Amino acid sequence: MIKEIISAISSGKRFLITAHVRLDGDALGSELALAWMLKDLGKEAVIYNQDATPGHYRFLPGAENIVSELEHLDRYDVGFILDCSELERIGKIAADVTTIKTLINIDHHVSNGGFSKLRLLDPKASSTGELLYRLMRKMHVKLTEEICTNLYAAILTDTGGFRYSSTHPDTLRAAADLVQGGASPQWISENIYESDPPAKLKLLSRVLETLELDLELQTASLVVTFDHLRQTGASMEHTDGFIDIPRTVKDVAIAMVYSQIGDNQFKLSLRSKGKVNVEKIAARFGGGGHINAAACRIEGDLAGIKARVRQAVKEL
Amino acid sequence: MIKEIISAISSGKRFLITAHVRLDGDALGSELALAWMLKDLGKEAVIYNQDATPGHYRFLPGAENIVSELEHLDRYDVGFILDCSELERIGKIAADVTTIKTLINIDHHVSNGGFSKLRLLDPKASSTGELLYRLMRKMHVKLTEEICTNLYAAILTDTGGFRYSSTHPDTLRAAADLVQGGASPQWISENIYESDPPAKLKLLSRVLETLELDLELQTASLVVTFDHLRQTGASMEHTDGFIDIPRTVKDVAIAMVYSQIGDNQFKLSLRSKGKVNVEKIAARFGGGGHINAAACRIEGDLAGIKARVRQAVKEL
């Protein structure tokens, strides 16, 4: 299969690259690295994403060229669908993209059943970035500094900073080669993880006061209210990553953040360690997600909501 | 020099291993990995530390055998002083340890002037753990699961989770080999970073209230006092990692934590981004470290100390 993909790259002239909505570091780093490689090979490569690039990924080389509007999809010889287990995950162009004759799907999600004829799938790979690294090695293309930086960002973020079980020896060897090729671990980490506004820390300080531990059920929760935002000058997007904080407590199996979204409504975000399935809790309240990460919206006063969630955890 | 060290290992029978006070992951992981290697070679190896092993490092294989009392130092053939730029950093046995005929210092601190005849020093190494990895490779000893786990923990923690500029291609290649040899990135990370007592989050909440940003000098600081510990039931070891929090603010070049260590004395921990050299600041107050991570002890009242540090940053 990889030979057919290389042959499609070799014969194509105009390439479209896209990835899933709600962009993350793996989607963006993979798209950009692939675009750089194609351009270095003298091809035309356009990256389309439905969603805007989040602020902390705008430093990635080439990010300024990503487009969010597309016309004439049929002008592309090849369409790359990256980091998607289903075609629908790319958003509103999902139907039209099938007018491109050759679609290539590169992905590492376990649930990927294979929606395109040409595909490079490996659920054991840490990231789509790692799969692209393998492909580029196979093609003997030059791993430029731009490519290395983007692939390193992809691998770094999708392994949670080399912390998840998907961090294999080959993952770290790929990372080593990418650093050798010009990726700066410090600069990349600083841009992704250390570019928060001061208001975020002020918000964190207030929110940590709401920490509640339930040792019986092994849960830990935080609450973010409109009042907290007003008091600190922060906005709801600054709560990104807060869910990882109650996780750090020993013996906590489920971490929860209740974020106010209305006068009488909260969004509940859930994360679990190991085999605890929080998707089931979210589903009880009409939400969804995966075994270790899920979310839902619940109406009511906070005390009442917490009591209902506690009951749902008990019945898990 | 490395040949003489290998020869001293080969001819010695009884080995003492120690490291600096205020133990960190590099000190402990290095000590333990070395002890495992020596025992695998049929030697006697005793690890002595003045301070107790912090809770989140007690999972490290062999940590239960570390002693905090020593008699008859002259019975050891070789004494390993790890991760210390000065002999005094090992604490109260510093004077007596010189009764051991052969001392070997393995360290990566820039400020290390070389206090022992036998030494393996490289300020470019990410960690003492990486230096031991090199030594063991040179010796062709088997990297057992216990050795790999300890060395991985050493490298992981001293690179801030592979984020500091000290993360070189060889650092990541060493990490890859260690994972291949049985180190589990997920298990090690969970034990070190996600096994905190609830009191740590309570302490963090209090300490975040002390956040001070100096936009002119691009510094951000936190303060931890004895009062904070009393109020939250936490201990000073729970401040581990707090220094990384002011770092997350955009445009902060230097992160600082002032930790009270006496009625009128604070330890200042410094971390910098990019090429800002905080070792120079620490050196001004008689401390040491590396370009991006350094520490010192300063006497006086907090306001006076902060003013002196501010001046030192200005003159950087």
Could you describe the 3D structure shown?
The structure is a homodimer of 316-residue chains. The first copy, chain A, has 316 residues and is an alpha/beta fold. Chain A has 2 domains: 2-193, inorganic pyrophosphatase (n-terminal core) (Alpha-Beta Complex), CATH 3.90.1640; 202-314, Diaminopimelate Epimerase, Chain A, domain 1. The first copy, chain A, is 36% helix and 19% strand. Chain A has helices at residues 2-11, 25-40, 128-139, 145-158, 169-180, 185-193, 198-208, 226-232, 244-247, 279-284, 302-314; strands at 14-19, 44-48, 78-82, 102-107, 118-121, 212-214, 219-224, 254-262, 265-272, 288-289, 293-299. In chain A, the strands form 2 sheets. The first copy, chain A, has a 6-stranded mixed beta sheet with strand order 6-7-8-9-11-10. The first copy, chain A, has a 5-stranded parallel beta sheet with strand order 2-1-3-4-5, covered by helices on one side. In chain A, helix 4 (145-158) crosses helix 6 and helix 7 (198-208) packs across helix 8 (226-232). Chain A is elongated. The mean pLDDT of chain A is 94. At the A-B interface, helix 5, helix 6, helix 7 and helix 9 of A face helix 5, helix 6, helix 7 and helix 9 of B.
